[in-house]
Amino acid sequence: MQIDNNVLYYLIGFFAGIYYFIKGLLWFREKRLIEDIPTSTVRSIAMGLAEVNGQALPFKQNILRGPFIKKDCVHYKCTVEKLVSSGKSSHWELIKTEEKGDYFYLQDDTGKVLVKVEGAEYKVPVDFELQTGGIWHADLPDSLNEYLESDGIKAKDMLGFSHSFRFMEYDIEVGDRLYLLGTAGKNPYDDPNIFEADVENVMIQKGDNNDKFIISEKSEKEILKELTRNSFLGIFGGGGLSIVCLFLLMAFFDLL
Q1: In 3D, which of 83, 57, 56, 79 has the Cα closest to residue 66?
Q2: How far apart are CA 106 and CA 182, in angstroms?
Q3: Contact by Cβ (8 Å): 67, 101
Q4: Which of 73, 136, 191, 219 is 20–30 Å from 55 (CA)?
Q5: pTM, whole model, 2 decimals?
């Protein structure tokens, strides 16, 4: 029996629905985790999974500057993508990524705590985005051209035509208000020669048991609102899509 082309769409919809149903359960689990952890002040942080709010400050006066917008920050990540054509289609290919800033302080009214950023899930908006090259986009600025050339990346092809690039930068600027959910443990840099008096003997980082670690410019309320929406759409939308597609498959094969 020749299978109708619609069967392929039913199968794709069925498995896509299962995927989003599982994602919805994971989002709901994350939502419950955040709701169950009380927010602490820096001075009252207990060992283990903790939640705290405060301002980002540089560690040991290590102020960074992102390569594109040149603002004072404690951590930045930037990416460069190149538009690559293959046949009739094209896609953005990541050709360079740069990330700096391993540690920073989080400060509230009660003191400071050290944060190790490795392994964090960032909920930080794009601070800079620019697409260049091609017919409808601006030529590459000199500063960005120099940034590419520092890694031997050519802005133009052999015929002199400009490639299309997309530049993005994410910054945690000095003074940014942050929400953190991570594992609090003993500060390995507990050295009175480099530490100020109000720095707690604690460091927030990703836990050994793959515990949740979030660094966010969104507030806890905003994160919970987003997780509530996503989990609802994932569980009910994904589950509903799978059920409908399964019903259509069974109807096609006369299994009802």
Answers
A1: 79
A2: 12
A3: no
A4: 191
A5: 0.81
* 3-class secondary-structure state, position 49: strand
- 150-181 in b/e form (b: 16+ CB < 10 A) is eeeeebeeeeeebbbbbbbbbbbbbebebbbb
Identity (one letter) of the amino acid at 132? T
The tokens for 45 are 């942080």
Q: From 104, 102, 123, 100, select the one nearest 112 (Cα to Cα).
A: 104
In three-state form (DSSP H/G/I as H, E/B as E, the rest C), the secondary structure along 110-173 is: CEEEEEECCCCEEECCCCEEEEECCCCCCCCCHHHHHHHHCCCCCCECCCCCECCEEEEEEEEE
123 close to 205: Cβ distance less than 8 angstroms: no
pLDDT tens for residues 200-256?
Answer: 788 999 988 778 999 999 999 999 999 999 999 999 999 999 999 999 989 888 787
* Tokens read off for 124: 């930080």
